[in-house]
Amino acid sequence: MDHKALAREMRGLREQVTGITDTAVAAADGLLIAADTADSIDPEGLAALAAAGLGLARRTSEATARGALHRTVTYGSHGCAAFYAVGDTALMVVLGDEGMDVERLHTATQPALRRIDLILTRKAAEGV
Q1: CA 52/CA 46 separation, integer angstroms
Q2: Helices (DSSP H) in 20-101: which residue ranges?
């Protein structure tokens, strides 16, 4: 897998959207693939929680006939966490501080998610 390409995508989001503090990419089952997180964040735990939350949101979206899930966002008193589906087999989580522009984040993530999906799909196609 091209870890440098994944790191470029995560770093690129930070450059495009002010307020991003941490990012991670994980498999849909919660296994961490790549992370750019602060020392105070457990990236493996974040990946597992994000997968559980995204899985529940996917099931809710399906059960209520809302179509394929694209993202879910949780807001806390110190910022937010956005969880994005990357195809059917992965996810990306983005943590941001109180000042992060969530609408800008949603716009900036769309091309990055497509590129991340291609990076991960290439890995699967190569059998690595």
Answers
A1: 10
A2: 43-63
pLDDT in tens, 40-72: 999 999 999 999 998 899 899 999 999 888 899
pLDDT greater than 70 at residue 39: yes
Contact at 8 Å (CB) between 27 and 90? yes
Euclidean distance between CA atoms 85 and 72, whole angstroms: 9
Nearest CA to 20 out of 92, 81, 86 is that of 81
Distance from C-alpha of 90 to C-alpha of 88, rounded to nearest angstrom: 6
Beta bridge partners of 76: 79
State how far the Cα of 97 lies from the Cα of 35, in Å rounded to an integer: 17
DSSP state for residue 85 in the 8-state scheme: E
